[in-house]
Amino acid sequence: MTGNRRITIVAAALLAIGGMAACSAPADAEAPASAAKESPTVEPTLTAAEVAEQAEADAAAAEKAEADQVAADEAAAEQAAADKAAEKAAAKKKAAAKKAAAKKAAAEKAARGTVSQQNATEKAGDYLDYSAFSRSGLIDQLKFEGFSTKDATWGVDHLKADWNEQAAEKAEDYLSYSAFSRSGLIDQLVFEGFTAKQAAYGAKKAGL
What we know:
Blueprint: H1 2-37, H2 48-112, H3 115-130, H4 135-144, H5 149-157, H6 163-177, H7 182-191, H8 196-205
Helix pairs in contact: 3-5, 4-5, 6-8, 7-8
């Protein structure tokens, strides 16, 4: 009888302790939530001076950004203009070089002459190898040979002959088989196609 009573008392005590633990658990669980509600975040309040300072800083930053953009646009425009000018100058230089090359090629071709002109030069040289001629007299001789006036003239001029010396040589030829006065010899040389100045030089060189 006594043993059963002890067991009953112990069981009752255990139940009482368990009930107390159950009652205290919700209170402990709600404690953090209550603590969180008790600590709300407070936003800092700016003074009027700070607000004005911030607005001024924002305006200055916006103004600087706008100025930087304007400067960048101007620099880009200047660079584009410089590139365009350089491209135009390069194209102009290239065109000038091409024109100069074409002109040089044409001059070289003209200097070489046609086959007929080259033949006229060779024929004129042959004539001067055995007799003296005036420029006009040699051109006439080449025309007599069938060359055109243009080709005959080209051929004679490309010999680079010294017509004063030709006049002197012709004067000596005349004097070698006939007597002449100075004026008579000059007239004869002019008749042969020499200029008056060339004829006078030839007569003087021949001794008159």
